[in-house]
Design brief:
Elements: E1 10-14, H1 19-30, E2 34-38, H2 42-51, E3 58-61, H3 72-83, E4 88-91, H4 106-133, E5 137-142, H5 155-175, E6 180-187, H6 211-214, H7 219-231, E7 236-239, H8 245-252, H9 254-261
Parallel strand pairs: 1-2, 1-4, 2-3, 4-5, 5-6, 6-7
Helix pairs in contact: 1-7, 3-4, 4-5, 8-9
Amino acid sequence: MNKDIFSNRVVWITGGSSGIGEALVYAFVRAGSRVVASSNDPEGLARVIKNCAGLKGSAIAVPFDLSDTSGIERLASEVVNKEGRVDMLLNIGGVSQRALIKETPLWLDRRIMEINYFGTIALTKAVLPYMINNGGGHIAATSSITGRFGFPLRSAYSASKQALHGFFETLLLEHKNDNIRVSVLIPGRVRTSISLHALTASGKEHGLMDDGQAGGVTPEKAAEQIIRGLSRNRREILVGSSELMMLKIRKYLPALFFRLAGKIKPM
């Protein structure tokens, strides 16, 4: 993989204050990119930007909350005015869930969809015209293996991630002639804080590191897999380890999948 292809590229990364997003910020800055790092955690972003000092590229913090899209077009305009363009948009930010369907109030389903789906497509729609005018670009969205199948305690999360596949596959088909490349990232288990911040039925954070999450690949390994896939223009980029086998089982052996999924400890 030739990482020089990312040198001097303007790369906007949401979820940039922790986990996979943070690891991607460092990886792209090391590759010489000009990174715009966003999340709803200004202090976390400040720490990440400080850690980028002395690396090959550069990074700036642009905090915003995916659950509030009211000013997102203005924000995109400000970023383009400052950086000149956006070559890559990596939609990494999002929120997970730990609640049974029967316990999940509808407002919580809407909140998860607002962050994971509407927040992601709002930023994408805001950046897309600038990419087209600039001759093209690369947009990625973060799904999940549960964006390909249902899983206990993840109903709204799974639904929000499955919705992203439909949107971004359509984006690819509609704008291929505009040189808009599109990738959907499909992580399995990655050792991040996503389970800590997952929303329970009350809307409060789960606050626990799931066993499966703790045993996942590191964010740095995940970032390496993602960058390799982006450099090869993969439409779908699998991120993780042996748990990704569940995707093939669901596709080719659905009866076996439903037996296994009912036995796997969802926490």
